[in-house]
Amino acid sequence: VDNDRRDLDMNNKDIDADKLTRFVRMNELRLVTEYNPVTAIGVMQGSLQLHLLLITDKMSPKHPERMRRYRAAAELFKGKILFILVDTNLKSNERIVSFFKLKKSQLPALAIFHAPDEEQDVLTLDEVSVKRVQDFCNNFLQ
């Protein structure tokens, strides 16, 4: 996943079915899943019920650095929060921006959403940093 290989030490005597299942679940998804009509169903029906969306313009010159930092933050919450990229250039993603009551002028933004009870929070930001993403997620989890 994400061009990174993860190995589970099968020589370890403590490996059981639960540990193997946890390893596969934590590593089966990309660190950041791009939201589009093809991935939408999988995102909503996935085992993780907490979603963090980075709503941004993929065409921005700042996009590669934003994604590097967003992926680094995703590492910290692997298995707990599904990190999603929402490209504002896709017309099909306009509904998401309006769902979180955001305007183009407020982007980029982070939006966190807990699917079962539809609890949500939004953070508009000038720049994505690992610390800001981490703080935002931890505050929501508390």
From TrEMBL:
Gene3D superfamilies: Glutaredoxin
Organism superkingdom: Eukaryota
InterPro entries the record matches: Thioredoxin-like_sf (IPR036249)
Alphabetized Pfam families for the sequence: Thioredoxin_6 (PF13848)
GO biological process terms, semicolon-separated: protein folding; response to endoplasmic reticulum stress
Cellular component annotations (GO), alphabetically ordered: endoplasmic reticulum
Family statement drawn from the similarity comment of this UniProt entry: Belongs to the protein disulfide isomerase family.
Name of the protein in question: ERP27 protein
Organism annotation: Atlantisia rogersi (Inaccessible Island rail)
Organism taxonomic ancestry: Eukaryota, Metazoa, Chordata, Craniata, Vertebrata
Gene name per UniProt: Erp27
